[in-house]
Known about the structure:
Number of helices: 26
Strand order of the largest sheet: 2-3-4-1-5
CATH class of the domain at 8-179: Alpha Beta
CATH topology of the domain at 8-179: Rossmann fold
CATH superfamily of the domain at 8-179: P-loop containing nucleotide triphosphate hydrolases
Structural class: alpha/beta
CATH architecture of the domain at 8-179: 3-Layer(aba) Sandwich
Shape: elongated
Radius of gyration: 46 Å
Amino acid sequence: MSENFIVSARKYRPSDFDSVVGQRSITTTLKNAIKTNQLAHAYLFCGPRGVGKTTCARIFAKTINCQNLTEETEACNECQSCTAFNSNRSMNIHELDAASNNSVEDIRKLIDQVRIPPQIGHYSVYIIDEVHMLSTQAFNAFLKTLEEPPEHAIFILATTEKHKILPTILSRCQIFDFNRIQVLDIVDHLQNIAKKEEIEAEPEALNIIAQKADGGLRDALSFFDQIASFSDKHITYEKVIQSLNVLDYDYYFKLTDSFLTGEYVFSLTIFNDILNNGFDASNFIVGLSEHFRDLLVSKDAKTIELLDVGHSIRERYLEQTAKSPLQFLLKGLDIISNADIQYKMAKNKRLLVELMLLKLSQVTGELQKTFTQQPIIQNQQVVQQQQNIQPEVKKEETKQEEETKKPEIKKEIVQEKQPEYEQKAKSKFSLPSVNQLVNGGGLKKEDENNQEEKKEEKRITGDKIVTLEQISPFWLEYAESIKNEMPRLASTLSEYEYELKDQTIHLKLSNETQTQQILKIKHEILNFINQKLDSNLKLEVVISDAPLKSKTPYTKEEKYEYLKEKNPELDNLKKQFRLFVD
């Protein structure tokens, strides 16, 4: 009977600091602390899942109790403490799952257990996993012991959500932030396991597994075991994308080629195939944005190191990025990112993605239109340069040719300058011809032209002089236009008189309230009248005690006086009933 299968995540779990993948800075710090005997009483290991938090805690607990440390500050795996740890029967290491033991009673049991000193070794190590799951009461009960534990007790807290832990707990721990493991480190680790397990694996296939794991080594090992069973220990690129339901790079390369050539129909058919194969459109948008990003970093040798793909796929990126203009990639990333933002809010999600593909197919055409204008400008500059060079070529001719051509050049210069001066003179002082005199033309037409030019100059400068009689009909027309919306202002404009001095309208009003209301529509009045008269009038409002026209009652007091003049008995009624004007 064959042995029981052990998953790779357990079978190849690191047993010393050197075998920990991707956390070199943390393992070095812990080894130096052990070497110099500068151990803290509480540690907090935080970071994403599957990056080695609990593994490092176990290795640390095993190493500090080792009786014969190596020169590299590693456990010897031969002493009594190490053999007990390797066989899972060590009494010095205590693990607590805070997800299921998160009450105050569980922490009190732990506190009572902390008082017992270790039987073998120097320290009792308490590893509390998922410590953020403890209740607030449990944290408070644990706080005093964590602050002042016995000399033989060391606490190692592990969590994926550091922000949920109380600040009073964080301040009593040395905090180590575990990073996501790089793709290349995961690929190297998977290749070593494949050799030990005698599994054939393509580098591109392992690279896809590492990217799918998203920085978690435990997830990568789980995918590795799954695909090894699916492919019968022959892990290929095709079987990986089929098993993990990952979009093939080939889709993105074909789509980008269709964008560059403007073949939008081909891009729509590819997207239809992707949907028919069961892939989600949102994942497709994310994958396309990552593809454009990889093309962008492949543009320069300094940034190509940011490309986490296999060797053969890297060659395809270099080949396609050579055909892709930088402006095309930047514009494409902008279009894709906008589609990603709008995807969650869109009701017709497929149409949104198809519109994104159509926009990407038009980018190269728009870029060609902008770039085709630049060569024309450059050609014009070349022609001008050639024209400027021609006189220098003429200087190389013989002296006899120059002497024969000098008079002609002078004549040409005189003929070029003189007509310009004479044309100006003729345009103002030219006499009519005989035909013009016979036909009744001549000076009259010239005078008419001069008058029209003067009118045009006045119109442009806005110095047209208008009279009060010309202003009056348009003033009343504007007042009539605002009668429905602003009846009080309309009555004010129609009832109060105004004067015209130096092309400025002086409007006399009776109180400050009317003045403020007229000033609010001052520019509207002037624009209306100036457009009608083609003028440049101004408006000033003046408060006067004696308006030129009959005064219309405006305030409440004025209205009362106006009614009292028409009916004197109103004042007796006010006194009889003791009324007040409010």
